[in-house]
């Protein structure tokens, strides 16, 4: 049975982007949507983490180097959680998927927060990428929360 994507997207930080992500999978059940969201989240964190790492190695600004180092660490931690969520989804441990999603979302927000704390008034060359990661993290949180609530999978 497919799960209505509007029930997911209206709860996210960016419903329009959520619809773009999930509309091609409108006939998927909730567990399949969870798998798609986990894979998309993993890809976003991996690509953005690599971009942050490249900025970290190139910058001469010590404040930005600190920010990039912290973000790389947050993203690595998030990827560990995402991998764990992938395994928990396969075995139906939806509470564990939800816990992982919440950690991933906190890691994403923490990276964004390091800019305000450690590099205020600096231009953020990865603002769009970190915003995209934050948005996909919110989709992950919503899907995992619905899964863990016992909704029909």
UniProtKB/TrEMBL annotation:
Superkingdom, natural source: Eukaryota
Ranges of residues in domain Pectinesterase inhibitor: 1-153
Pfam families on file: PMEI (PF04043)
This protein's UniProt keywords: Disulfide bond, Signal
InterPro entries recorded: Invertase/methylesterase_inhib, PCW_Enzyme_Inhibitor, Pectinesterase_inhib_dom, PMEI_plant
Family affiliation: Belongs to the PMEI family.
Protein name per its UniProtKB record: Pectinesterase inhibitor domain-containing protein
Species of origin: Erythranthe guttata
Lineage: Eukaryota, Viridiplantae, Streptophyta, Embryophyta, Tracheophyta
């Amino acid at each position: 049975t497919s799960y209505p994507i509007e029930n997911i997207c209206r709860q996210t930080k960016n419903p329009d982007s959520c619809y773009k992500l999930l509309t091609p999978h409108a006939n998927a059940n909730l567990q399949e949507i969870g798998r798609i969201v986990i894979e998309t989240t993993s890809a976003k964190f991996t690509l953005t983490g690599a971009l942050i790492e490249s900025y970290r190695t190139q910058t001469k600004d010590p404040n930005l180097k600190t920010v990039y180092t912290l973000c790389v660490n947050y993203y690595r931690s998030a990827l560990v959680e995402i991998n764990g969520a992938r395994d928990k989804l396969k075995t139906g441990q939806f509470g564990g998927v939800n816990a992982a999603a919440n950690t991933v979302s906190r890691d994403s927000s923490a990276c964004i927060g390091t800019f305000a704390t450690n590099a205020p008034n600096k231009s953020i060359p990865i603002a769009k990428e970190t915003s995209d990661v934050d948005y996909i993290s919110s989709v992950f949180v919503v899907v995992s929360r619905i899964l863990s609530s016992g909704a029909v999978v």
